[in-house]
Specification:
30% of the residues lie in helices and 24% in strands. It contains eight helices and nine strands. Strands 5-8-7-6-9 form a five-stranded mixed beta barrel, surrounded by four helices. It starts with 13 loop residues before the first helix and ends with a helix. The N terminus is likely disordered.
Length: 286
């Protein structure tokens, strides 16, 4: 079946997805984690009570990107209840903004009040190094509508959503991440994430342009999840694993396989931060 015949985002009901999940799991988690490229192995550390393929959840889009397992994992990590999205869907897979954001809206409907978003990104700042982890202070939204050949009303509402009065990325959680990193002698970069549609990697000219407009890292995800989470009142913190660094005058070949490999190698740093952040979120819910 062609993707143009799949249900539009406007017909996707978070309530149906919640009922399907609750039929298998009745726990209460206040923390949700989105595990991006190369970070899915963190799900193996969760004491899982239920693991559901996205295809078994009504309305969930299916993942086709490399290193995105496409499972919803419910359980505990370090004794704290949480729900993890093991992999995500992207605009370049043909989905709309609303479809990409749908799993986040389901987490909110399940009771999640804090969302930890992770991704793999290319470094734009000259001081970035491969394997660094960057705390996202803010983002630049260059993803447009994605899948613009089949806009739906929910995508339009999401794209036009007014910014919250408060900042998108939670300052208190960000400071807590910095404290955790310093305590473990881990360098945590801070910067601005540029979200593009993809799936192509950036040209030399694009690297220069993104840097000039204030970007420190660039990737193909995260924006829709953050916007819908904030619109629903969730606290949000974002972490980018730097898998390659822009060298416009000495370009290197970047592949999806290499990105996934480097992101996986940085997993110990992300694990440290996620464990500390879920503890903070549990103690101070939104």
């Amino acid at each position: 079946m062609s993707r143009t015949m799949e249900p539009s985002a406007s017909s996707r009901d978070p309530g149906q997805a919640v009922l399907a999940i609750r039929d298998r799991w009745n726990g209460m988690a206040r923390v949700g984690v989105v595990l991006g490229t190369g970070l899915g192995d963190l799900a193996a550390e969760i004491d899982a009570q239920v693991s559901l393929p996205y295809g078994s959840i009504p309305g969930f889009p299916s993942c086709s990107a490399l290193a995105h397992a496409g499972r919803l994992v419910c359980g505990t990590l370090a004794g704290i209840p949480l729900i993890a999205l093991q992999g995500r869907c992207h605009l370049y897979e043909g989905y709309s903004l609303a479809e990409v954001a749908f799993p986040t809206s389901v987490l909110a409907a399940l009771g999640v009040r804090t969302l930890i978003v992770t991704n793999a990104a290319g470094g734009l700042h000259p001081r970035m190094a491969i394997g660094d982890v960057m705390l996202i202070d803010d983002h630049i939204h260059l993803q447009g509508f994605g899948g613009s050949w089949r806009l739906d009303p929910d995508s339009l509402r999401l794209a036009r959503m007014p910014r919250p009065h408060s900042r998108l990325y939670d300052a208190e959680l960000g400071e807590r991440a910095s404290v955790i990193a310093r305590g473990a002698d881990v360098e945590l970069r801070r910067g601005v994430y540029v979200g593009v549609t993809g799936p192509t990697y950036e040209t030399r000219a694009e690297y220069r342009a993104f840097r000039r407009i204030g970007g420190d890292a660039v990737g193909m995800s995260t924006i829709a999840e953050v916007l819908i989470a904030r619109s629903l009142g969730l606290r949000v913190i974002g972490l980018s694993t730097i898998t390659n660094v822009a060298r416009p005058d000495a370009p290197q070949v970047v592949s999806a396989e290499n990105v996934a490999h480097v992101a996986a190698s940085a997993l110990p740093k992300v694990r440290l931060l996620v464990r500390g952040l879920i503890q903070e979120a549990q103690n101070k819910p939104a």
